[in-house]
């Protein structure tokens, strides 16, 4: 082979591998950011230093700003951005608390000057410090603007030194106002809208491929159709995989992996087996019902080949981003087919139909930890429940001391979702909770535990292996591998 051509081929292959790695790393980083705690830590590590640096620049350019304002300002800014929905996250209280603290420190300073005379630059009278803290606690309590940083501004006023205490109070007000404005813009334009930028299922997972396998295929197709119908661009593709040897008995049989329709792969009539014709007729009947009752576009595909590769290839060819397959087990574990679909690049749901429910309005979502999987499950649940349904997002804890942290995690998970949502923290094991509560819901949504390590799954078996007694339909969600 020509050496130049070989070099070009090697460079092309290297670039392709680099792009694949880059896409995978970008996807992993996005998923990491979907954990609210990770996002807030990144914001504190990046945005807060930039904001403080900007105010420092202003302090160097304008004599109005004193560098003494930065310790309380940095602490208050951290409190704002690290807990945007917390007790101290109101911008008005942030500005008022720091300013009132500085005013209380100024009052204590003037009181000491009036009754005891001037003090040295490096000396702070104990009575001044005590009075400053007392006034700050009293005033911020009365004004309902209590903030830890207010006490810092009060005490720093007493050591302003060569800086005019009045100028220090003004600088506190102006600098805190700048921080508050940036915080309001960030919270309203990004943090509260982060589902639009970070959570992929909010924008996607609306082109649904449904492999028509087993006795519950029609019910699974209906479930997938309702997921797709939540988005205007949604569509459903029904797939039946026929073994290659049964596609045609003649020499013009389609090659393995070929998609077949009523006119054959080339648009001309080709010999087809009776099984293929029956599959097309069955799919068309189900598609017609979906179009009529759900109102979402529905296509049908009959393909030949091995089940798992053909399913994943058809999903790619049909531009689908979600696979909804009937739930299958083999000796207590996921069947090879479902496991293969879960190992693919696309998001997937294994739907276990236990009832004849056609609309899922009361939905229980069991989450174990925050992250992209939990957000996706909640998104799917709100799609199905609609405005008239109810979604209950629940986590189970082993000890009462874990309750507050669990409640905080659930609050972060649901605050970007729309529709009626409640959160529950149950002190019980998952199996007991499901047995006691599943009958009150139409659908139970759980994760596949696919992201857990093998050791973790050995020590604590995945939840989906313990839901056989659930008295409702079950959807097992699996995040795709980027």
UniProtKB/TrEMBL annotation:
Domain (HPP transmembrane region) ranges: 43-187
Xref: InterPro entries = Rossmann-like_a/b/a_fold, TM_HPP, UspA
- The domain of life is Archaea
**Could you tell me which residues belong to the region Disordered?**
246-278
Query: Does the UniProt entry include the keyword Cell inner membrane?
Result: no
Record bears the keyword Ribonucleoprotein? no
Q: Where is the composition biased (Basic and acidic residues)?
A: 269-278
UspA domain boundaries: 207-326
Cross-referenced SUPFAM superfamilies, in alphabetical order?
A: Adenine nucleotide alpha hydrolases-like
Where are the bilayer-spanning segments?
39-58, 65-82, 94-116, 165-186
Which keywords does this chain's UniProt record carry?
Answer: Membrane, Transmembrane, Transmembrane helix
Q: Which family does it belong to?
A: Belongs to the universal stress protein A family.
What this protein is called in its record is Universal stress protein family protein
Q: Give the organism the record lists.
A: Halopelagius inordinatus
């Amino acid at each position: 082979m020509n050496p130049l051509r070989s070099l070009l081929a090697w460079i092309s292959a290297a670039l392709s591998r680099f792009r694949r790695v880059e896409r995978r790393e970008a996807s992993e980083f996005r998923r990491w950011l979907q954990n609210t705690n990770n996002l807030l830590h990144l914001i504190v590590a990046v945005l807060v230093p930039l904001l403080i640096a900007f105010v420092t620049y202003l302090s160097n350019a304008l004599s109005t700003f004193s560098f003494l304002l930065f310790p309380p300002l940095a602490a208050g800014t951290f409190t704002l951005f690290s807990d945007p929905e917390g007790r101290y996250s109101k911008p008005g209280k942030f500005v008022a608390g720091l300013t009132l603290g500085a005013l209380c420190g100024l009052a204590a300073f003037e009181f000491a000057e009036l009754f005891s005379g001037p003090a040295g630059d490096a000396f702070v009278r104990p009575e001044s410090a005590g009075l400053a803290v007392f006034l700050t606690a009293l005033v911020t309590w009365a004004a309902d603007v209590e903030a830890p940083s207010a006490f810092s501004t009060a005490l720093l006023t007493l050591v302003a030194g060569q800086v005019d205490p009045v100028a220090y109070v003004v600088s506190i007000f102006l600098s805190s106002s700048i921080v508050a404005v940036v915080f309001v813009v960030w919270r309203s334009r990004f943090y509260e809208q982060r589902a639009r930028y970070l959570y992929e299922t909010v924008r996607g997972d609306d082109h649904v491929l449904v492999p028509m396998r087993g006795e519950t295929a029609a019910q699974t197709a209906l479930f997938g159709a309702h997921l797709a119908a939540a988005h205007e661009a949604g569509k459903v593709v029904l797939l039946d995989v026929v073994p290659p040897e049964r596609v045609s008995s003649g020499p013009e049989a389609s090659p393995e992996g070929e998609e077949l329709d009523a006119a054959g792969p080339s648009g001309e009539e080709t010999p087809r087996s009776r099984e293929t014709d029956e599959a097309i007729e069955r799919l068309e009947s189900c598609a017609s019902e979906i179009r009529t009752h759900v109102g979402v576009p529905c296509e049908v595909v009959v393909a030949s080949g091995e089940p798992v590769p053909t399913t994943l290839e058809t999903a790619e060819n049909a531009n689908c981003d979600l696979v909804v397959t009937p739930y299958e087990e083999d000796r207590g574990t996921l069947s090879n087919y479902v496991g293969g679909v879960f190992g693919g690049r696309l998001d997937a749901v294994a739907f276990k139909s236990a009832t004849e429910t056609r609309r899922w309005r009361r939905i229980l979502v069991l989450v174990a930890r925050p992250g992209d999987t939990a957000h996706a499950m909640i998104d799917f649940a709100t799609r199905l429940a609609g405005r008239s349904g109810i979604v209950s997002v629940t986590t189970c804890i082993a000890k009462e001391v874990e309750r507050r942290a669990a409640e905080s995690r659930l609050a972060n998970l649901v605050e970007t979702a729309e529709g009626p949502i409640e959160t529950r923290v149950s002190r019980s094991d998952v199996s007991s909770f499901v047995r006691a509560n599943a009958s009150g819901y139409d659908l139970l949504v759980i994760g596949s535990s696919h992201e857990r390590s093998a050791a973790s799954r050995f020590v604590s078996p995945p939840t989906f292996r313990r839901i056989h007694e659930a008295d409702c339909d079950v959807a097992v969600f699996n995040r795709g591998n980027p």
